[in-house]
Amino acid sequence: TQLLEQSPQFLSIQEGENLTVYCNSSSVFSSLQWYRQEPGEGPVLLVTVVTGGEVKKLKRLTFQFGDARKDSSLHITAAQPGDTGLYLCAVGDNYGQNFVFGPGTRLSVLP
Amino acid sequence: DAGVIQSPRHEVTEMGQEVTLRCKPISGHNSLFWYRQTMMRGLELLIYFNNNVPIDDSGMPEDRFSAKMPNASFSTLKIQPSEPRDSAVYFCASSTRLAVGADTQYFGPGTRLTVL
Fold this sequence. Notes:
heterodimer, A: mainly beta, 6-stranded mixed beta sheet, 5-stranded antiparallel beta sheet, globular, B: mainly beta, 4-stranded antiparallel beta sheet, 11 strands
């Protein structure tokens, strides 16, 4: 059983469109992170959310942590080709001893 | 800062050969992580170190895999003997402290391993 699920698995959109991707679990976490990975590179941290209901903005990216701290969403406004990549959510397990990544959403923004 | 450095960037070897992957973490970082990424299994944590000491190696798939961190600026991941199913991209990451899941991990560019 996957600790984290992400949806959709793949997303292809036109430049300028808005989109939302999701990260879900049946477990409660003290914090959750979003990373973006571009082809041929390692993941890069975008944000860490720690408080239920928390909303963080990073330019055109809006991140929300669910009230129950079991899920999170990432919304991109007016997507650009530079947003293309694999978006990964990640959490530490409840024992603080392991770090688990979701399977990722692969986003392609077409010019 | 040069970031996390990994070598080699690409490795092609034959089944049964020994493979050694190398990592230099960011100077001053106390924690180091080794990951493996495949299309089928995604990004998996293999092992992590804090202050050069292995903390959790439960993600290491088999005894064929071993990792060492002889000092704060160098770590190796060794596979002996290698098998085709070990083909993957292996990432090293470092962070300033062992706050797993809450601290920023900085990833290297990865080593793409192909075992024929």
